[in-house]
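Hi support team,

I've been running sequence recovery on a batch of backbones for a student project. Most finish fine, but this one hangs at about 90% for roughly twenty minutes before it completes. I'm not sure whether the input is malformed or the queue is just slow. I've pasted the structure tokens below so you can try to reproduce it. Let me know if you need the job ID as well.

Thanks,
M.K.
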């Protein structure tokens, strides 16, 4: 599941952008409660299934936002939709723990990879600076 954890790194920018839709959906549900239970059920299922992809969104530092918790409080699914939600509400906490555990496991690999990238960048910059110094001194001599 390390691949699953590393795929989160690539998704974070999109998650932050798409999280605005959760607020708009909750506002819409508060202002205009539909009469159509089918339509409401489909929307709830679509937003709730987002939890399978990204169960948490890092905001700043150790602060995280849980989209499914927000939906459960701000725009609870209709009663006829609760049984068909995927993942089921009872499994949300276990899913979150699994994702956090995977992220913790992959942290040291990610840090090592970034460290090597920084080292390679520093060597490249250093060699560029040295080559420019050598080029400028040979021009002066000539």
């Amino acid at each position: 599941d390390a691949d699953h954890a590393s795929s989160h790194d690539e998704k974070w920018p999109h998650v932050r952008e798409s999280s605005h839709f959760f607020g708009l959906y909750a506002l819409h549900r508060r202002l205009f409660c539909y009469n159509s239970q089918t339509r409401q059920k489909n929307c709830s299922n679509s937003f709730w299934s987002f939890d399978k992809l990204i169960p948490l969104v890092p905001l700043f530092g150790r602060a995280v936002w849980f989209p499914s918790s927000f939906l459960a409080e701000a725009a609870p699914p209709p009663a006829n939709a609760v049984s068909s939600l995927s993942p089921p509400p009872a499994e949300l906490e276990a899913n979150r723990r699994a994702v956090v555990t995977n992220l913790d496991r992959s942290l040291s690999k990610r840090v090592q990879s970034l460290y090597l990238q920084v080292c390679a960048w520093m060597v490249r910059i250093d060699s560029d600076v040295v080559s420019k110094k050598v080029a400028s001194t040979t021009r002066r001599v000539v």
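--
Follow-up from support: It reproduced on our side and the slowdown came from queue contention, not your input. The helical segments are 2-31, 37-53, 67-74, 92-141. No action needed from you.
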